[in-house]
Amino acid sequence: MIALLLRDLKLSVRAGGGALIGVLFFTTVVAVIPFGVGPDLNLLSRIGPAIVWIGALLSALLGLDRMFQTDREDGSLDLILMQEHPLALTVLVKCLAHWLGNGLPLVIASPLLGLFMNMDEVAIGATMLTLLVGTPALTFIGAVGAAVAVALPRGGLLVSILVLPLAIPVLIFGVSASYAAVQDPAPFMPPFLILVAITMFFAVLGPLGAALALRNAGD
Amino acid sequence: MPQIAVLTKLTDLANPTRFLGLASRILPWMAGITAILFAIGLYLSFAGEGDYQQGMTVRIMYVHVPAAWLSMMCYSVMAASAIGTLVWRHPLADVSHKAAAPLGAAFTLIALATGSLWGKPMWGTWWVWDARLTSVFVLFLMYLGLIALNRAMDDPGKAARVSSVLILVGFVNIPIIKFSVEWWNTLHQPASVIRMGGSTIDSTFLWPLLMMAIAFTMLFFTLHIAAMRNEIWRRRVSAQRRMAARMAGQKTDNTVEKGA
Amino acid sequence: MRLMVEALSARRGEDLIFRDISFTLDGGQSMVLTGRNGSGKSTLLRAVSGLLRPESGRVIWHSEGTDADIRAAEACHYLGHRNAMKAELSVSENLGFWKSFIGDFPGGHGVSVGEAAEAVGLGDIAHLPFGYLSAGQQRRMAFAKLLVAWKPVWILDEPTAALDVSAESVFTALIKTHLSQGGIVLAATHQPLGLENARELKMTGFAGGTESMW
């Protein structure tokens, strides 16, 4: 299992720089927002957490469909499916590796983008914290889509369409918690704890669903 | 040396032929009952008085609420069929959830459209990000995604199994989505919009509503069985076409071998 | 040690590719599947490996010291058309990963990565990225994967396609060694593998008259 984690991490670093593309996309999405809504700093700081979250959500979806697809293309997936470390556990490890390679860089890049959006320190910190807790949920739920993509002649866009509705709760509570940290009356903990709960729930549901889809997509 | 046995009759686990026989027998009855129920329901809907606040627009409710109810029931039917596909590998279950998805999308669209029509006089706008409307909208997107997924795959068996997984994952998620949308809604719209249901519904509205709900449910099952029948026929036709191609291919192969 | 295949039938798409295939292979035995393209050789191999759920029938593995209900796939190595190696990683990283991920089946031990690369005649280039190797070298390294972790059954799908004669003889020697150690080999091939005692199963594929499930 550790071998799988290390291998996937090595691949994400060496192969084409998936992490870099994700961060670049994230930066670009956030950077075009001011061109759309205007350079009003007050407005930007107000919508900042939401924009950063949406940018992270889209960037997280970007590399998802490759999660199992590369393994399928070179035949590795067959061998992985044959080994009975419970398949859900194998998927969980692949999710972790994928998140370390693609999700974590987004979290690390988010404070910089927060500065672009004129957010204050508390808001930046809260957004980063919620992203740290929330982006794994995106990877877990996206794993189901990635497993479905294996069976598709051409995956890609369809995976995003399938996964996005399921990711709505993550977005809602991630953004709610970020705002709650800044705006006084709303408490921070309830939405944040719900976000943690959602992540933990998806950590179970995602790998189980993905394993089921992988077993059934084989031919 | 082991030999590939001569193809003998395959004992079917599922029997689509029996289903087709049953379907053709009960479909006229179901269609008839649906028509009668609709006649009664529509009569009651229009005979009753309008609401003193909402006027005639309250009659939209008699279409809107049953459609919204069906949008959820249809997904439950699909989830049950998905279990049938994954656990028992029943080909009829494959057909069932494939046939149900467009129906679910259609009823959800009706619910959204009538909700929007109702919203214009009530709230003064075509669309509000009300918790119910929003979660129904998300459901609509999920239906469309499932339809797209089914169409993107060539092998119907694999398509059925893969979309079953997604249906079930979505089914587990629906309560979470509903809950989070409600949370989000109360956060952003403290002044809640006027809501039907939950509160006391007068019996003058209740009877037509109940009748229409039953009529819509019957309509769903009639359409569902008809759509399943169509899907089975479609698969039979494509199976026979493939067979014809295969036979022709073997004939040419043989002549080539003889020629060589 | 025994691999039993009982009344296996499998579908591809909606077509039944083969039905009611049964055979038994004991330790040291091998079987070669022959037949033209599309006759179902690969499908049978994937069904035995557990990668394709069979329409009916089952594959049973029996050996000393393992559970009776163990999945037969656990005892199998599968070498498909694709090499299952990452072009970005070096050969030894690739082999090292599979060695620890696949692991040894009870009753034997895999050789080290260096020895495996040596065995396929490419010991001195194991440090190179896999992508830099030629197609023939890549295939040899994919074969070395079978050596790093011990599995009694080797399931080989066209193992020698696109290989020169010397590489073929290396493979044949490795397969013979595996058989002499009590292993089992199930291979689909166009070319003769040079195995004297191999049984042959001729796949005829679609025989016409397959009933659709509809």
List its traits:
heterotrimer, B: 260 residues, disordered N terminus, disordered C terminus, C: 214 residues, alpha/beta, three-stranded antiparallel sheet, 5 helices, globular
User: How many β-strands of chain B, per DSSP?
Assistant: 0
Chain pair with largest interface: A-B, 31 and 33 residues
Helix content of chain B: over 70%
The total domain count of chain B is 1
Order of SSEs of chain B: HHHHHH
Main sheet summary of chain A: none
Run of helices and strands of chain A? HHHHHHHHH
Q: Quote the beta fraction of chain B.
A: under 5%
In DSSP terms, counting alpha (H) and pi (I) runs of 4 or more, how many helices of chain B? 6
What's the overall geometry of chain A? globular
Q: Specify the structural class of chain A.
A: mainly alpha
Characterization of this structure:
With 219 residues, chain A is mainly alpha-helical. Chain A has one domain. Chain A contains nine helices and no strands. Chain B is mainly α and 260 residues long. Chain B has one domain (30-191, 205-237). Chain B has six helices and no strands. The model of chain B is unreliable at 1-13, 190-199 and 256-260 (pLDDT under 50). Chain C is globular, with a radius of gyration of 17 Å. In chain C, 27% of the residues lie in helices and 25% in strands. Chains in contact: A-B, A-C, B-C. The interface between A and B is medium-sized, with 31 and 33 residues. Chain A: InterPro entries: Cyt_c_biogenesis_CcmB, Cyt_c_CcmB_bac. Chain A: One of its GO terms (molecular function) is heme transmembrane transporter activity. Chain A: It is found in: Cell inner membrane. Chain A: Belongs to the CcmB/CycW/HelB family.
Summarize the structure.
The complex is a heterotrimer of chains A (219), B (260) and C (214). Chain B has 260 residues and is mainly α. Chain B is 79% helix and 0% strand.
Any chance you could write out the topology, listing elements then pairs?
The complex is a heterotrimer of chains A (219), B (260) and C (214).
Chain A: H1 2-14, H2 18-37, H3 41-62, H4 66-73, H5 76-82, H6 87-116, H7 121-151, H8 157-182, H9 189-217
Chain B: H1 16-47, H2 61-88, H3 91-123, H4 131-152, H5 156-188, H6 203-259
Chain C: E1 2-12, E2 15-26, E3 30-34, H1 41-48, E4 56-62, E5 76-79, H2 91-102, H3 113-119, H4 135-148, E6 153-157, H5 165-180, E7 184-188, E8 199-202
Parallel strand pairs in C: 3-7, 3-8, 5-6, 6-7
Antiparallel strand pairs in C: 1-2, 1-4
